[in-house]
Q: What sequence folds into this?
């Protein structure tokens, strides 16, 4: 085998997967997305750590699934670099090992590329957003109560329970006029008969 044949053989071995229909090439961005999604599913990962470009993407409100991921491809092999922030309280080495296993498995199963290594860079530790989750639950509960309230029901002042007397209700009751007593029936003069023909002055009925 001459030098030219050796060179061609090396290029074939390092080229993307090929078949009778042609070559299959997976873009680096796709490899990064697959690795990023896999990394975000690992328990103990607070989030991915990106650079200035990823930060600008977040500010624009766009989802960046490849944030914190770098890939180095050579033919149909790839080495992955993962930059993460770990949740406080988790064992960092254990999380890192799970990250390596998860990323390697996902990339190889989805792309067919051979993963030669997964390098983990832990760039921060943060606590869970427990307060934010609690506030979200409170908001959901208020929205649920508002939706269940019958249409046209008067809104109660904040901090007032249903059925509780308020100053406005009290003033409304006090402003209503008092009911007058029914007048006594007018008696006809003595000696005259009432409409039924009965005397009113001690006569016999």
A:
């Amino acid at each position: 085998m001459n030098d030219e044949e050796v060179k061609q053989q090396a290029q074939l071995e390092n080229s993307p997967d090929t078949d009778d229909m042609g070559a299959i090439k997976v873009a680096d961005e796709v490899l990064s997305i697959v690795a990023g999604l896999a990394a975000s599913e690992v328990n103990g990962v607070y989030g991915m750590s990106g650079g200035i470009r990823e930060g600008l993407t977040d500010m624009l409100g766009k989802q960046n699934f490849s944030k914190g991921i770098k890939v180095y491809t050579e033919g149909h092999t790839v080495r992955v670099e993962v930059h993460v922030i770990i949740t406080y309280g988790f064992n960092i080495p254990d999380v890192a090992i799970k990250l390596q296993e998860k990323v390697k498995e996902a990339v190889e199963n989805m792309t067919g590329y051979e993963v030669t290594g997964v390098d983990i860079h832990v760039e921060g530790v943060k606590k869970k957003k427990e307060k934010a989750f609690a506030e979200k639950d409170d908001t959901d509960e208020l929205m649920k109560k508002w939706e269940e309230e019958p249409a046209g029901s008067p809104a109660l002042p904040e901090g007032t329970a249903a059925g509780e007397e308020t100053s406005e209700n009290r003033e409304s009751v006090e402003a209503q006029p008092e009911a007058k007593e029914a007048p006594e029936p007018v008696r006809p003069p003595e000696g005259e008969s009432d409409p039924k023909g009965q005397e009113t002055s001690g006569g016999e009925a």
